[in-house]
Amino acid sequence: MLGVLRGMGITFKNFVTSYLFPRRADSLDTAGMVTVQYPEERLLEKERFRNFPFLIYDKTPDDLRCVACDICAKECPPKCIYIVREFDKDGKPLKRPAVFDIDLTVCMNCGICEEACPFDAIFMDHEFEIGGAERQQSLVYHKDQLLKPATYFAKIRPTDHATIEEKRRKEAEKKAAAAKQSSQGAAQTPPPPPPAVPPKSPQPNA
Amino acid sequence: MTDSLLQETETLEVNLGPQHPSTHGVFRMNVKLDGETIVSLKPVMGYLHRNHEQIAENISYLGSMPYTDRLDYFNSMSNNFAYALAVEKLAKIEVPERAQYIRVIMAELTRLVNHVSVTGFLLNDLGAFFTPVLYAFREREKILDVFEETAGSRMMCNYFRFGGVKLDLPPGVLDRIRKIVKEFPKFLDEFEGLLTQNEILCMRCQKVGVLPFDLALSASITGPMARASGVNYDIRKVDNYSIYNRFKFKVPLGKTGDVYDRFMIRILEMRQSVYILEQALKEIPEGPVLNPKTAALAKAPRNFKPPAGESYGRVESPKGELGFYLVSDGTPQPWRYHVRAPSFVNLTVLEDLCLGHKVADAVVILGSIDIVLGEVDH
């Protein structure tokens, strides 16, 4: 009998303290919160939190970093990424995807695409409030739905953004130096970059 | 008259499950009852079979790391640990010092998460609905927050890599873990005050579902269940994998092997885990967290081809001996991939434990075995 009473004492203590010292989510610290009144109150987003992948572009949605190399699609464990490379009028392959679909019903949020991508083009998002009225079509995200600007990435993951920008800047410098050297060596100007082809509106099978 | 009536009774066959709150998932117990006493019990499993081994044999070595999270979804860090050990043994990869410490810290935190929730759920099975389990979940939430901050996900961590861990601990997390570890014994004292002396719990659990020492040995039961029967077998001590030989800790052993012993062993193990964590947090060095030789591997998992051979990596997961057996033929995919799942092996003695007890006890016994169906049916 004593053990039961002691246990009841502990439940009573917890009951009283939960009223006397309630813990509410505030904007500074939500670590270890158990009860959150969800739509009104929210837990703070952790920087490393990963959900579904998104594609990143630098300035305009046309200059996306993805070059359609297909590495993420090959490495993806549940194979939820589908990429088709874009071709110009002469049938020459362009470094851009015509179709980039991610089936969010299949994606298991592992983040391997982000790790495998050599061009820092695909990253895991913090967005989790997605949903569809039916089971298949609305959760297959197409390229235009997946594209998000680099500023968005800088907002949700500032530390990663800083390190990646640093890396990209160094690479660009190296490339510029190499180009300069080769142009000096060959006494020739490097060929001008291929003219930007207006993107064919990528509307995959809807 | 009464004798003839008694002779005419029949046994009743009942299906407990597959959709039953006591089964902790989709699992069916085919029970034959004489009155309320169990005369035969056949576990039926496979409802959550996901072809885990076949999938792993068809993707790269790193690709099955996130799949191991989904085996025992309560302890993804332990599953990662075992798989990483197996591959590191296969390819002879060294792990840097700091990564070893992070691994041990994460594995022990996982043990806390698992034991705290399984003791809570055991009380749920006993009919103490949700008060103990929610006290337990309060503590669990703090640890899961740490996991989310370090690995990016609360439960599907996918944090270990071959030759270390994915990322270093973010700033401030070590202090958070220190705080959790400091406060955890206080919670355990409260939890024990609530439960261990409780007469109802003692009556329902003591001398119920006794697993004898010999049966535990011959059925190759591992983990807290074996130790509750007095089998002194803890892979952290036996195998000394990773850096467990540097830490001082005891292996709690039970005497009778009943449900109450299993419950107590888990509480005592949590105290030992806290002890290990204290030592690890004191000693953790600075340094790299990923072997530079394998760091490039993350960029191209498909180019990782371990030499032909076989390896078996095992850890003391919170549920028992979790082992991954790999055979490589020098290609990017394992030729054979096998999981020795502790929940599955521990479940084999369920009938022996339940015979002669009442139906209500079967639920408690199943709860005390601590199964996760993701692992049973892998």
**How widely separated are the two ends of chain A?**
68 Å
H/E series of chain B: HEEEHHHHHEEHHHHHHHEEEHHHH
Major pleated sheet of chain A: 3 strands, mixed
Query: Which overall shape of chain A is indicated by the principal axes computed on the Cα atoms?
Result: elongated
CATH architectural category of the domain at 53-164 in chain A? 2-Layer Sandwich
Proportion of residues in helical segments of chain A: 25-40%
Output the CATH topology of the domain at 53-164 in chain A.
Alpha-Beta Plaits
Helix content of chain B: 40-55%
Structural class of chain B: alpha+beta
Radius of gyration of chain B: 22 Å
In this structure, how is the largest beta sheet of chain B organized?
Answer: 3 strands, antiparallel
How many beta-strand elements of chain A? 6
Widest sheet of chain A: strand order? 4-1-6
What would CATH call the class of the domain at 53-164 in chain A? Alpha Beta
The N- and C-terminal alpha carbons of chain B lie at a distance of: 53 Å
Share of residues in strands of chain B: 5-15%
Low-confidence stretches of chain B: none
Helix/sheet category of chain A: alpha+beta
Number of helices of chain B: 17
Envelope shape of chain B: globular
Overall residue-averaged pLDDT value of chain B: 86
